[in-house]
Amino acid sequence: MRDYPTNKRMMLFSGSSNIPLAEKIAKNLGISLGKVTRTKFRNGEIYVKFDESVRGADVFLIQTCSPPVNDNIMELLIMVDALKRASAGMINAVIPHYGYARQDKKAEGREPITAKLFADILEVAGIDRLIVTDLHTATIQGFFDVPVDHITAIPIIAKYFQKKGLKDGVVVSPDVGGVKRASILARLMHYPLAIFDKRRPRQNVAEIEHLVGDVKGRDAILFDDMIDTGGTLVEAIDHMLKSGVRRVFAAATHPIFSKNAIEMLQDSNAAEIVVADTLPLIKPYDHQRIKVVSIASLLAKTIKKVYHGKSVSELFKDENLV
Predict the structure, then answer these.
(1) If one looks up domain 10-151+297-316 in CATH, what number appears?
(2) CA–CA distance from 112 to each of 67, 72, 107, 193, 228 (Å)?
(3) How far apart are CA 45 and CA 40, in angstroms?
(4) Which active-site residues does the annotation give?
(5) pLDDT tens for residues 44-72?
(6) For 133-147, 226-240, 258-272, 274-288, which range has the lowest pLDDT when averaged over its residues?
(7) What's the rounded Cα separation, in Å, for the pair 294 and 224?
């Protein structure tokens, strides 16, 4: 933590990863995005220059870890370094989707813990605080020695489904590791919880074995923190329908949507796939099956709380998320 005195001047900047979300956040805050020049040398090296003074300001820097993930992470680090060298009072990194979150432990020998490495690099670069949405595992917060505000899009997703009028709803966790987040959604919806039992023989591959819970004749919400390739999700949807589920809705905070995931999901048997805008959808998503809810207002409220030194947990005080 640097000793520069803050003059309580808020400034909001965005990297190139998700400018539409940053613009929505700025609109919710009633301010404009700060001016910054971003370009690349011919060999791919990234160049960043802030085009206005940040001295003493409380800066909130928005950058999500969308493809190209490594380029966007490097751009974020360079922007943090530039802010530090320009004497910003506080550097608050707002990372809606935290990259490398799935590499949070050693499952086998000689593996890295890349989520921890990313945390270390962010701190060395010079961030004073992290604001992040729905980490893959909450333990990643412990990788940081700076304050971490871990917020969740689950109440926003719950409010979307509360308007749908589902019949005899049930929330389904895709695996044992996702039970906590699925149980939060189930509690907000006042629905029972079911769980898939599956195993992962290798990265991005999952094999479904059993579905535990009463799902027959119900409308089900299959909820996870992210959707990557979509293959396992489509398999789970078909498995649930064969198990007697009336309709299957899928939901996730982070729409990674690798490869042909969007096309696969659009052709699936899901009634709807609901995602947040923590990541930009590169391809058109105006298909009736994929719906997007925005977390811009939630992030704006979080930024206001942090800026004014107030409790971020107050945003969820009526949601009983503990």
Answers:
(1) 3.40.50.2020
(2) 21, 21, 9, 34, 21
(3) 5
(4) 198
(5) 999 999 999 999 999 999 999 999 999 99
(6) 274-288
(7) 17
- CATH of region 154-293: 3.40.50.2020
**Secondary structure string (H, E, C) spanning the chain:** CCCCCCCCCEEEEECCCCHHHHHHHHHHHCCCCCCEEEEECCCCCEEEEECCCCECCEEEEECCCCCCHHHHHHHHHHHHHHHHHCCECEEEEEECCCCCCCCCCCCCCCCCCHHHHHHHHHHHHCCCEEEEECCCCHHHHHHCCCCEEEECCHHHHHHHHHCCCCCCCEEEECCHHHHHHHHHHHHHHCCCEEEEEEEEEECCEEEEEEEECCCCCCEEEEEEEEECCCHHHHHHHHHHHHCCCCEEEEEEEEECCCCCHHHHHHCCCCCEEEEECCCCCCCCCCCCCEEEECCHHHHHHHHHHHHCCCCCHHHHCCCCCC
Q: Model confidence over 157-195: pLDDT tens digits?
A: 999 999 998 989 999 999 988 999 999 999 999 999 999
Candidates 215, 281, 211, 220; CA nearest to 250 is: 220
**CATH fold match for the domains 10-151+297-316 and 154-293:** yes
Query: Angle at the Cα of 81 (from 78 to 83), degrees rounded to 5?
Result: 110
pLDDT at position 4: 46
Residue tagged 């870890």 (tokens): 65
How does 244-263 read in b/e, with b if 16+ C-beta sit within 10 Å?
ebbbbbbbbbbbbbeeebbe
Whether residue 156 contacts residue 188, with contact meaning beta carbons closer than 8 Å, is answered with no
Q: 199 versus 260: which is more confidently predicted? A: 260
| pLDDT mean over 215-243 | 95
Domain ranges of the chain: 10-151+297-316, 154-293
C-beta of residue 57 within 8 angstroms of C-beta of residue 89: yes
Position 197 scores a pLDDT of 84
- Tokens of residue 120, six digits: 């270390």
